[in-house]
Amino acid sequence: MPRLVMMSGLPGSGKSTLSRMLAEQSGATLLRIDVFEQDLRNLHGPDFDVGTLGYQEGYERAARHLAAGHHVIADAVNAVEAARQGWRDVVGKSGADIVEIEILCSDVEENRIRLQTRDTGIAGLPPVDPEAAAARRWEPSSANPQRIDTAGRTAEACLRDLLERTALT
Fold first, then answer.
1. CA separation (Å) from 23 to 35, 96, 104, 120, 138?
2. Which stretches does DSSP call E strand in 50-149?
3. Does position 50 have pLDDT exceeding 90, yes or no?
4. Number of folded domains that form the chain
5. Taking all residues of the chain, what is their mean pLDDT, rounded to a whole number?
6. CATH number of the domain enclosing 70
7. Which of 54, 70, 100, 162 could form a disulfide with 65 if both were Cys (CB 3.0 to 4.6 A apart)?
8. What is the pLDDT of residues 4-30, one digit of tens each?
9. Beta sheet of 3-8, edge-to-edge order
10. Beta strands 3-8 and 97-104: pairing type?
11. Cβ distance 141 to 6 under 8 Å?
12. Which domain holds residue 123?
C-alpha cells in the first residue's frame, strides 16, 4: 500500500536534508514545497505572494503519485494544522497510509548556525534569516506525530530513525 510521509518542521531543523536522504534510500517520490513556491516566484516575480499555492501543488502531485501506487515524502514546514490536514485529506481520498514526522533541532545555537551556513539548493531561494525562523508561528499537531530531534546527531543516525519509523525500506 502506498504511504505518504509528512515531514514537518521549522527551517534549519534538518527536514529537507532528511527528506532527500529518505527519498534516495527508499525510492519514494520527494515533493518539496519550497521548490513549488520558488517556481511561482520565478514565474511571477520575487514579491509574488504564493499563499497556499505551493501546498496546493504538493497536494495535487501527492494524490497523483499515491494513486499510481508510489510512496511520497512531503517536505514542508507544515507549521499550521490546516497545512497538515491538507496532506491527511489527500491520504484519506487515496486510501494510502500516512506517517507524520516532526523534525526539530532543540539546540538553538546549532539551528542558528545551520540557517546561516546552509545552501537551500533551490535557485533563487535565499536562506531563511535565523530571527525570522525563531519568530515563526507553530501550531501543535492534533495527530501526535513522531518526533526526531536532530540536535547533536549526524544525518545518518537521524535517517536510521526515520527509516525505522516510516518502514519505507
1. 16, 17, 19, 17, 26
2. 72-75, 97-104, 146-149
3. yes
4. 1
5. 95
6. 3.40.50.300
7. 70
8. 999 999 999 999 999 999 999 999 999
9. 29-32, 72-75, 3-8, 97-104, 146-149
10. parallel
11. no
12. 3-166
